[in-house]
Write a structure and sequence with these properties.
heterodimer, A: about 260 residues, alpha+beta, Ubiquitin-like (UB roll), Fumarate Reductase Iron-sulfur Protein, Chain B, domain 2, 5-stranded mixed beta sheet, two-stranded antiparallel ribbon, about 35% helix, flat, B: about 300 residues, alpha/beta, Glutathione S-transferase Yfyf (Class Pi), Chain A, domain 2, Rossmann fold, 2 domains, 4-stranded parallel beta sheet, 13 helices, 8 strands
Chain lengths: ~260, ~300
């Protein structure tokens, strides 16, 4: 593990956890840590300095994949260390980096097709649909399902089903066929974004406005502003667009893929 | 109760005309198929190693998912039918494997879903008599060779689709549709099956030193020549792999066998859809989906 312990909180082994503390095992060694901490904070409480396997601390970057088991249960479970609170009797190990096969490709030269996926990751067709990936996904993504849609060349569906992936790589770490689900998923999302999704007209319009310098003066003015005035401007900004749309309307417009 | 429908991967890719024609003809007869939720590949071939339990997980998961829809699952691809039905047979007859797979896929499944081929569905739920009455096109000028291949029929004890040596179910359907069905002694000959993936089309042109020794084109030749000599306009089948072999091998056959006449290969459900008056353009009866373009014969014999 790419972490080092300073040893200052190197607690002695305890049988009974003191009040307010829970007993956890880090790389097989027992520690008592305050209950309510996340796994990540517990690691730090125990004296580890996290050099790798730790990123945004907000559940988005996928760097802190963790495999654990609790006493009395055979099941291996997974979590993001920054998002999961320690439980008594947790045996923890961190998966900071997994050496999964990562293809280099030029998205400009691909087509949104099964062939593109197979060319980049021929091994993904070895999937036997055991569903192990689904069972270890900390995001509860239907991983096997998007591998199934990928194997029948449905790029849009694969992109959709894998959308919440944070690229932690736990799926690949447990795959008996050595496939790299998360890389297949992101390739499908890239192909979808580039070739399948309808172009967002409002984005093109706004980029055009930027090119013609429509906002240059506004930005220049802001750069010259006093901090106090800038803060005032920020606090009184329009958070929602001026047009009156209810939340449900906005949601259904997004789902229908319109440019409203 | 709703009827579950399992299309299978090939039907969402190269055999799209088979999938669309099954869904639309079922709808035309008033049946609303519901796709099995979260379906995956069935495995494509049934694993013959008795201790390879992993290969049973996908088809049994599919059957367990089908159960959330209803007590029957209709499928049409001969490969899917073979795998699902045999997996079901295994679950029903091998308690130890059933338990092991249930534990692994974390779903209870006791083998209580019936796997039904679409032709069986047409016989039992729609009724061949009714089909004959509802057709909009007369097919009495259409001479067809019904071809069953292997996967629909064997092993007979597990599949119980029809007599494995002399099946008549597709013959009966086509007769009910008013077709002129030829007596076709090669209806259960092997097309070469997965030997087709051994090598590329060029090498399959009966060159004796290729991986298959020209096996696929030679198998296909035997079947197709028999159909052509009996005057068939189409070979009609329900298996995407058979269609691929019989269809794609014809260039190679033409080179090897002087005087061979090409014949289009189509799915029974494509013919049914067109005969029901559904839009023929919707069912991939074209050169984009066939090596031997069936559109000319469809137009001349079915639509005229």
């Amino acid at each position: 593990m790419a972490a080092k312990t300073s040893g200052k909180a190197g607690n002695a082994a305890v049988d009974e956890s003191p009040a307010g503390m829970v007993k956890i095992y880090i790389m097989g060694k027992q520690y008592a840590v305050p209950e309510g901490l996340t796994i990540q904070k517990a690691l730090e409480y125990a004296g580890l300095t996290l050099l790798r396997g730790c990123g945004c601390r907000g559940g988005f970057c996928g760097a802190c994949g963790t495999v654990y088991r609790t006493e009395g249960d055979y099941k291996l479970k997974v979590a993001l260390a920054c998002q999961t609170v320690v439980e008594d009797g947790m045996y923890l190990t961190q998966i900071p980096f997994y050496p999964a096969n990562k293809a280099i490709y030029d998205i400009e030269k691909l087509t949104p097709s099964l062939e593109s996926l197979v060319q980049a990751y021929p091994e993904f067709m070895r999937c036997v649909q055991c569903n192990t990936c689904r069972k270890v996904c900390p995001q509860d993504i239907e991983v096997m399902q998007y591998m199934a849609t990928a194997m029948r060349g449905d790029i849009a569906k694969t992109a959709d089903l894998s959308f919440d992936c944070i690229m932690c790589g736990l799926c690949a770490s447990r795959c008996p066929a050595d496939t790299v689900q998360y890389y297949v998923g992101i390739l499908a999302r890239r192909l979808y974004g580039k070739y399948v999704a309808p172009e967002a007209k409002h984005l093109a319009d706004r980029l055009g406005e930027l090119d013609t310098g429509k906002f240059d003066k506004e930005i220049d003015d802001m750069i010259k502003m006093k901090q106090e005035d800038l803060r005032k401007l920020y606090d009184t900004r329009d958070i929602e667009p001026a047009e009156e749309t209810t939340e449900t309307e906005a949601v259904s417009a997004t789902e229908a893929g319109t440019d409203k | 109760m709703e009827i579950a429908y399992f299309p299978g991967c090939t039907l969402r890719a190269s055999a799209i005309g088979l999938d669309d024609s099954v869904r639309d003809t079922a709808a035309a007869f008033g049946f609303d198929f519901k796709e099995v939720p979260d379906w995956t590949c069935c495995g494509a071939t049934f694993n013959l190693a008795v201790d390879n339990i992993m290969a049973l997980a996908p088809p049994i998961r599919i059957l367990a998912n089908a159960k959330t829809v209803g007590d029957r699952v209709v499928t049409v691809c001969a490969g899917c039918y073979n795998v699902l039905k045999r997996a079901n047979y295994t679950v029903r007859n091998d308690a130890e494997k059933r338990k092991k797979i249930s534990d692994f896929i974390e779903m209870e499944y006791e083998g209580d879903v019936e796997v039904v081929h679409y032709i069986e569905f047409l016989r039992d739920d729609v009724g061949f008599d009714r089909i004959g009455k509802e057709l909009k096109k007369k097919l009495d000028q259409v001479k067809v060779a019904p071809y069953y291949g292997c996967q629909l029929l064997r092993p007979e004890e597990e599949l119980q689709f029809d007599d494995a040596e002399d099946p008549m179910l597709m013959d009966d359907l086509l007769k009910a549709m008013g077709c002129d069905v030829i007596d076709f002694p090669h209806k259960v000959e092997c097309c070469g099956a997965f030997l087709t993936v051994c090598t590329d089309l060029e090498a399959r042109s009966a060159a004796k030193d290729d991986d298959t020794g020209g096996a696929v084109s030679e198998c296909s030749y035997t079947i197709l020549d028999a159909a052509v000599k009996r005057g068939a306009d189409f070979v009609v089948l329900s298996c995407p792999l058979c269609l691929y072999n019989l269809d794609s091998a014809q260039d190679a056959i033409e080179k090897e066998h002087h005087g061979f006449k090409k014949i289009p290969i189509i799915y029974f459900s494509q013919l049914l859809a067109v005969a029901l008056g559904l839009d023929p353009k919707k069912y991939a009866l074209d050169s984009a989906h066939h090596y031997v373009d069936p559109s000319g014969v469809v137009k001349a014999k079915v639509l005229s």
